[in-house]
């Protein structure tokens, strides 16, 4: 009948019509992240605003890639004749492997696609590299930066250069269109935290004699 009261909406429909504040905030932050990341992707293609700087950005990309770091660390470990240097290099190798595993696990769990404006021309990728969150380059940059500053004796200008390198590698991920800003920010936090794990599990001749006997 026309005068009958309308039937109440099911509870799940009410929830959809009245989204929570947290849901609205997260959706808004995601929209801002996608919008800002696309605007900052100034080297995402040759026709982009800073397209001429794309080759330089790709060199920076290689400098933060896992393969050069793993090969360089392994080579240094094989060539080193100092027990102290071998200990530092062995732990750096452990840190790099831990970084690769953790980033792969998180990427596999989150499965966030890369930005739509990204060109899939990255240097040596693996299956999980089709995902964006977190940025492995940013994670590695933060991890290596903390490790180098803690375990290498460097002059102040060199220490500044190490920090600048980590920041430039991280920023280049957004400029190249490889990642959104939140991918990079989370990557930096994860890399910073992973170094603390490496310090806690530091390998030495006392707790890992078999490894040091091998080397």
Automatic annotation (TrEMBL):
<feature type="transmembrane region" description="Helical">
    <location>
        <begin position="89"/>
        <end position="110"/>
    </location>
</feature>
<keyword id="KW-0812">Transmembrane</keyword>
<dbReference type="GO" id="GO:0005789">
    <property type="term" value="C:endoplasmic reticulum membrane"/>
</dbReference>
<dbReference type="GO" id="GO:0006629">
    <property type="term" value="P:lipid metabolic process"/>
</dbReference>
<feature type="domain" description="Phosphatidic acid phosphatase type 2/haloperoxidase">
    <location>
        <begin position="88"/>
        <end position="199"/>
    </location>
</feature>
<dbReference type="GO" id="GO:0042392">
    <property type="term" value="F:sphingosine-1-phosphate phosphatase activity"/>
</dbReference>
<keyword id="KW-0378">Hydrolase</keyword>
<dbReference type="GO" id="GO:0005637">
    <property type="term" value="C:nuclear inner membrane"/>
</dbReference>
<protein>
    <recommendedName>
        <fullName>Polyisoprenoid diphosphate/phosphate phosphohydrolase PLPP6</fullName>
        <ecNumber>3.6.1.68</ecNumber>
    </recommendedName>
</protein>
<dbReference type="Pfam" id="PF01569">
    <property type="entry name" value="PAP2"/>
</dbReference>
<comment type="similarity">
    <text>Belongs to the PA-phosphatase related phosphoesterase family.</text>
</comment>
<keyword id="KW-0472">Membrane</keyword>
<keyword id="KW-1133">Transmembrane helix</keyword>
<keyword id="KW-0443">Lipid metabolism</keyword>
<dbReference type="InterPro" id="IPR036938">
    <property type="entry name" value="PAP2/HPO_sf"/>
</dbReference>
<feature type="transmembrane region" description="Helical">
    <location>
        <begin position="184"/>
        <end position="203"/>
    </location>
</feature>
<dbReference type="InterPro" id="IPR000326">
    <property type="entry name" value="PAP2/HPO"/>
</dbReference>
<keyword id="KW-0539">Nucleus</keyword>
<keyword id="KW-0256">Endoplasmic reticulum</keyword>
<feature type="transmembrane region" description="Helical">
    <location>
        <begin position="152"/>
        <end position="172"/>
    </location>
</feature>
